[in-house]
Amino acid sequence: MESQVNTIRSRTPGPPVEAAQRRARIAGVWFVLTFVFSIPAVLLYDPVLNDADYIVGAGADAQVRIGALLEILTAIANTATAVVLFPILKRQSESIALGYVGTRILESTVIVVGVVSVLAVVALRQDLADGGSADAVPIGRALVALKDQTFLLGPAFCAGFGNGLLLGYLMYRSGLVPRPMALIGLIGGPLACATATAVLFGAYEQQSPVNFLFTAPEIVWEVSLGIWLITKGFRPAPHITETARKATQEPDTA
């Protein structure tokens, strides 16, 4: 009788499965939050990024500061997605999972550098408010150019390599999400890196329709992954079910 109970327990999804699904939904929320924070931040940055004389002009400092706060939250959400998923992803490949975490941290670091450059423009504009100097305009433009490059190196290169290639591979091999969906990441990630390289070498502008076209698959992958994890969680892949069996199985003493 006790042997039968043990067999039933070993086949019943236990707390490890529930914990994994809870982790999936938390990761999905963080993925969605990266878009919730980052998209408004870009819009709020418009005055400082598109006004060459912002540093000596009237300014919209409060608006820009809100955008900076949202980007800091974006950096936190980026890192959180990798940290939350790491215990699950490492069961497929610990080295690649570590690479994913490292890439997300690097992306967040680059984003914060861009935030600092924008806040520096705001601080200098306030210092010059009583008597603006045309000599400060090149400084402001240089800081804005730095911000533009952080967007290219962070959300473009790092996200394409980390979220697209590394995470796409881990999700595809593990079967934690539908493989056709993970395939979008495997395709979109290299495309995002390729178009970022083209922008880096001046083939076209970062805001061009061509760049958006090649970045779109990566965006679709990240959005669909976040929504899937929130609504569906992980699929019953061996990484989840086998762990549950090992955790619930007890020695047969019958």
Explained architecture:
The chain is mainly α and 254 residues long. Helices cover 80% and strands 0% of the residues. It contains nine helices and no strands. The chain has helices spanning 2-11, 15-44, 46-50, 61-89, 94-127, 137-174, 179-200, 209-231, 238-248. Helix 2 (15-44) packs antiparallel against helix 4 (61-89) and helix 4 runs antiparallel to helix 5 (94-127). It is elongated. Residues 1-14 and 250-254 have low confidence and may be disordered.
Q: Which terms would index this structure?
A:
single chain; elongated; 254 residues; disordered N terminus; mainly alpha
- What is the count of β-strands? 0
Percent range for β-strand residues: under 5%
- pLDDT under 50 segments (min length 5)? 1-14, 250-254
Q: What's the helix count? A: 9
- Give, in order, the helices and strands: HHHHHHHHH
Distance between the termini: 8 Å
Topology:
Elements: H1 2-11, H2 15-44, H3 46-50, H4 61-89, H5 94-127, H6 137-174, H7 179-200, H8 209-231, H9 238-248
Helix pairs in contact: 2-4, 2-8, 2-9, 4-5, 5-6, 6-7, 6-8, 7-8
Give a short overview.
By secondary structure, the protein is an all-alpha fold.
